[in-house]
Amino acid sequence: MTQSTPAASAPAWFAYCPRCATPMVTARVMDKDRRVCPSCRYVYFTDPKVGVGVAIVEDEKLLLVRRRMNPERGKWSLPAGYADQDEDPRETAEREALEETGLIVAVESLLDVFFNPPGQGGASIFILYRARRISGEPQAGDDAADAGFFALDQLPELAFASTHAAVARLLHG
Ligand SMILES: [Zn+2]
Question: Does domain 50-172 bear CATH number 3.30.1360.40?
Fold first, then answer.
């Protein structure tokens, strides 16, 4: 079998079959190169990484968090994080808002779902909810260096193209 160029769907680090421990090979399965067990035919399907964020607007001001870590350290983004395997994304949204800003929030509605092509790091699928504050005052926590509300027409420097896209979606519908 000829090996094609390494694809995101066939990561070489997936070396051994989790069922029978046989070394995995790369083979064409359902139109993509994937890691396959030649012994028991187990196929490793790569799952997209799912990020979830919240847009909380009060009095024409948007809640943002300042990044403590690289990449884009010091710039601002929406409170967001990765969905756990066993977590409703609405819970992810509320959990991340609490962890990063100290606010107890409630998800209200879905704003949009974004796709970020792989290779840029971060989530390939980003779910953005509109939410509202239940209680608390913005206070940086977790991997945030700062948190606060900013006037929509005077936003600070935003991190990531995905934050720009999300804010544009929020502002312009
Ligand atoms: Zn196997």
Answer: no
